[in-house]
Backbone:
């Protein structure tokens, strides 16, 4: 490849791109957009004829592989699609939602009440064949979430973090397998 001073170049294994300022034997000096000058071997550089932004203006590129990838993207559906008639139970395990006043309760009492409530709601869903339940536990130090995970391992369920968009980080969604009862 024949590089000349003033050519636009891009580095093969890096994100540096700029203009050739000087060529000394097999070394090429490149000045980037911020004005920093770098030294590379000629074999590490690629001459840029057209800027990438200019290439994206042309949408009529006839490439079969590109068209195939676009079709695949359109066909893909989300794995977690909520059915219209699906019942999802939400249980808020924050202590202020469970009791009127938690004055006089220590952390052990609060945690026990929260875990017992979660267990009761989970068994209710098992009996009534409700397939999904969301436990809102909050972020905190993660003690309640750990206890819930331990509880869920004793039941025929699959659990994972609930929708971040809807609940943030402090919720766990539980899917109950119906055919194991």
Residues:
């Amino acid at each position: 490849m024949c590089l000349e001073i003033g050519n636009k170049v891009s580095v093969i294994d890096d994100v540096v791109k700029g203009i050739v300022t000087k060529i000394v034997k097999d070394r090429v000096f490149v000045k980037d957009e911020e004005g920093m000058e770098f030294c590379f071997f000629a074999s590490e550089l690629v001459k840029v004829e057209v800027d990438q932004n200019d290439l994206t203006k042309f949408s009529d590129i006839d490439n079969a592989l590109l068209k195939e990838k676009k079709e695949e993207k359109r066909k893909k559906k989300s794995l977690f699609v909520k059915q219209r008639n699906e019942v999802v139970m939400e249980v808020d395990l924050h202590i202020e939602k469970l009791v009127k006043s938690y004055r006089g309760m220590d952390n052990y009492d609060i945690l026990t009440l929260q875990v017992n409530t979660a267990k009761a709601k989970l068994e209710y869903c098992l009996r009534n064949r409700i397939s999904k339940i969301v436990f809102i536990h909050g972020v905190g130090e993660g003690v309640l979430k750990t206890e819930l995970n331990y509880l869920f391992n004793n039941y025929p369920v699959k659990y994972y973090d609930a929708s971040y968009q809807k609940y943030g980080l402090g919720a766990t969604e539980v899917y109950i397998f119906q055919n194991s009862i």
Remarks:
- The radius of gyration is 29 Å.
- The beta strands are 8-11, 17-24, 27-32, 37-41, 45-47, 88-92, 132-136, 157-161, 171-176.
- Residues 30 and 130 are 64 Å apart (CA to CA).
- The first strand starts at residue 8 and ends at 11.
